[in-house]
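Name: NmrA-like domain-containing protein
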Amino acid sequence: MTVSASVSAAKGRILIAGATGFIGQFVAEASLEANRPTYILVRPNSGCPSKAEAIKALQQKGAIIVHGMINNQESMEKILKEHDIDIVIAAVGGGNILDQITLVNAIKAVGTVKRFLPSEFGHDVDRADPVEPGLSMYMEKRKVRRSIEESGVPYTYICCNSIASWPYYDNTHPSEDIPPLDRFQIYGDGSVKAYFVAGTDIGKFTIKAADDVRTLNKSVHFRPFCNCLDMNELASLWEKKIGRTLPRETVTEDHLLDLARENIIPQSIVASFTHDIFIKGCQINFSIDGPNDIEVGTLYPDETFRPMDECFDEFLLKMDKKPAGGDDNIAASNLMVQISAMCA
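Structure predicted for NmrA-like domain-containing protein:
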């Protein structure tokens, strides 16, 4: 596919909802690094200490804090008008997905926002087909998509696939944990490939695509060839890093489906997505040559993705800081993920 040169607008004002979340922080930091006027939407009287710390850090880098909630249309209309917002990016968590419909209505009513990027940052939800409970989340995202399209609000969908890390099947944010040091758990036969993208690259390319005329009303897919790996390849890469061979344990399709059926949130959602990725191949089982799809590498051929080899180097540095405790630390990490979700 041949794509014409970018004709982006001047650096417009960006409002980010969910900037203190896992993906939202990468997007907000990339916006600030690109010298974009960056506004961070913060809920009034947010009392979560970790969120307050993240907000302060972004503010120190130049972010402008505005208070409001995306499910309050009147408040959002006022914010969009008063701050002359050009681009709205939502990176809200699963419990707030449908609140974006109110935000879409506010954007439509104001009529001056040039682009809306809803909270996607994963698979193409119109193509992926996870089992429950992951399917319910995707159904909500599909509902938001249809609302955007029916409203006429200009949009871009960011389909960035998997975060660059070891894909633990029971961890919401696996990039926060070191890859295995005792044994590998391989899904199925370990031969189904997926695309892995560093969080910094998700942020960087999201901001580049936010007002690129070529991404208008399109899905932007992140498919770095250098990071198209299956579980066996990922395991071998990590073994080279740590200088030893680890035993491999098969996690069967039935086991993942059983975990999904337990309907324990968020672990069962992660298990359903893991099944869709590494058993059904949801990231690689379709082409992106349609009129409403574009690959980010085609848009920015001179930009590079951080390879998994480099990302794994960072985990090696973390190993020196990892306290003793093994399984206790994994349990503590999962607990922190759940606490963060409660604060979101």
